[in-house]
Amino acid sequence: MICWSCKREPGPGPFCTACRALQPPQEGDGVDHFAVLGIPARYAVDLEAAEAAFKQLSRQVHPDRFATADPRARRASLARTVQLNEAWRTIKDPVARAAYLLERAGVEVASEENRKADFDGEPRGTRKVNAPPAFLLEILELNDELSAAKQAGDSVKVAFMAEEMRAKANESMRTIAAGLEAGTPERLQEAGLAFIALRYQRRFLESAERKEARHGG
Length: 217
Known about the structure:
Layout: H1 33-37, H2 47-61, H3 71-92, H4 94-104, E1 107-109, E2 127-129, H5 133-151, H6 155-182, H7 185-214
Parallel strand pairs: 1-2
Helix pairs in contact: 2-3, 3-4, 4-6, 4-7, 5-7, 6-7
């Protein structure tokens, strides 16, 4: 990429090292959310440091600072701001961060909303992970039990089931974190399966907690 202002190599960072003109963000697969914030690409993120980096970069490229600048600088400012906001939204959320890191590691986590046919052709190196049938049967039975408790107005049982599911969701998050930190194919496979479980567990909790909220539990 060449600096739009001085026509030289701009160097690393958002500003050209030669003329200090703000550069548009690099596009493509070579740049990720962690690189945007300048932090290591790992699950165990120092969120305070990440947020500090986000705020500092946001101040540097904020559109208000370029309101009267060259149109190319204004466009670069907007693009940089969008990129920073997207990166921070993903990294600050542990579930979104886990999904993003699994994707980076080549683990495609299938879902009932977006299942690809086997013949669609997946990117080379991608490992597709599907929910085990036994787990799907278990979560279906638990949802049926939850629905029955809600219909019966049994708030105690609903709360008890929600607490048990929270414990399972917490265990899934620990498995995901450990698998991402280890980074081996086997542990990433475990993390992918745990992520699938977490999605169902969170959906179960959303349903249960709506019931708890209505009854003040």
